[in-house]
């Protein structure tokens, strides 16, 4: 299967992505990660108003195969979470970079994304290219 690696995203080695728009970062997990997990059955995300800290666990995604921690690519305050995804986590696989985002976070320090991977770097990591 060929995966998408949108160029407008920054990637973490734990397979989360971040899309920066001003001081708001949209966070989700990559198509590759979803493929590795298999059928997703449960998603746990923090409440609006909660703080997330870069590198720390902010929730979990559970599939029939495994439970994986979700790691925050940035530090900030949750301003929105994808309630529809919590209700129907299996939709995660349908549009991971669009409708199936997880959180929107107001970022504190934009330079936190400086060490994130580009689309090319992430693709090389996961595909061994």
TrEMBL record:
Biological processes per GO annotation: glycine decarboxylation via glycine cleavage system; protein lipoylation
PTM sites of type N6-lipoyllysine: 65
Keywords: Lipoyl
The protein's required cofactors: (R)-lipoate
UniProt cross-references to Pfam families, sorted A to Z: GCV_H
PROSITE patterns: BIOTINYL_LIPOYL, LIPOYL
GO cellular component, one term: cytosol
Occurrences of domain Lipoyl-binding (ranges): 24-106
Cofactor binding note of this UniProt entry: Binds 1 lipoyl cofactor covalently.
Superkingdom of the source species: Bacteria
Primary role: The glycine cleavage system catalyzes the degradation of glycine. The H protein shuttles the methylamine group of glycine from the P protein to the T protein.
Database matches in HAMAP family: GcvH
Family membership noted in the UniProt record: Belongs to the GcvH family.
Summary of subunit composition and partner proteins: The glycine cleavage system is composed of four proteins: P, T, L and H.
Protein name as it appears in the record: Glycine cleavage system H protein
Biological classification of the source: Bacteria, Bacillati, Cyanobacteriota, Cyanophyceae, Oculatellales
Gene designation: gcvH
